Amino acid sequence: MTLDYIQDINEYGDDLVRLFDFDKSEAILFRDAIQDSIILKNEELDVSTLEFIQARNCNLILLIGEEDDGIFSNRDLNFICSLTIESYQKMISLLEPFCIKETKGYQYLYDLDSPTDFLFSPAGTW
Predict the structure, then answer these.
(1) Where does the pLDDT of residue 18 fall: very low under 50, low under 70, confident under 90, or very high at 90 and above?
(2) What is the maximal distance between C-alpha atoms in the chain?
(3) Taking the CB of the first residue and of the last residue of the chain, which one, N or C, has fewer CB atoms within 10 A?
(4) Which pLDDT value is given to residue 13?
């Protein structure tokens, strides 16, 4: 699984943090990491440090927030995703189809009016 950042993906200047190049087994590992760290332990999750993820040009930390802020940058190419526990639970349900069978589909992991989207896509496309 690869983590990267793409700037200016459309005419609105939106950006994209994506997880791509993975199979069902890595989707399960990612889902379980969110479940274990965030939902069960109420801890942040540094996605870049997970052994099955290769961070290409950015880092991403998932934090529990009081409201859904989405992904923002605290420094160049160091991103923080701040969502409520409820939104992380929804994210887990969005990941579920990728954990059941191999697919070429994709899923945005939150639906917020935010300049940076979070894409989960085995093929890296959207």
Answers:
(1) very high
(2) 40
(3) C
(4) 87
Question: Interhelix angle for 24-33 vs 85-100, to 10°?
Answer: 160
Asked whether 106 and 118 are in contact (CB, 8 A), the reply is: no
Would you kindly state where each structural domain of the chain is located, as residue ranges?
1-6+34-100
| Burial 38-68, CB ≥16 within 10 A → b, else e | beeeeeebebeebeebebeebbbbbebbeeb
Rounded CA gap, 61 and 51, in Å? 14
pTM of the full predicted structure?
0.94
Q: Which two tokens stand for residue 40?
A: 């069960």
What is the rounded average pLDDT of the residues 30-59?
Answer: 97
Residue 4 pLDDT > 80: yes
Distance CA 90, CA 108 (A): 11
Chain centre to alpha carbon of residue 38: 13
Q: In what order do the strands lie in the sheet with 78-83?
A: 45-46, 59-64, 78-83, 70-75
For tokens 């191999």, what's the residue?
Answer: 102
Predicted pLDDT at 54? 98
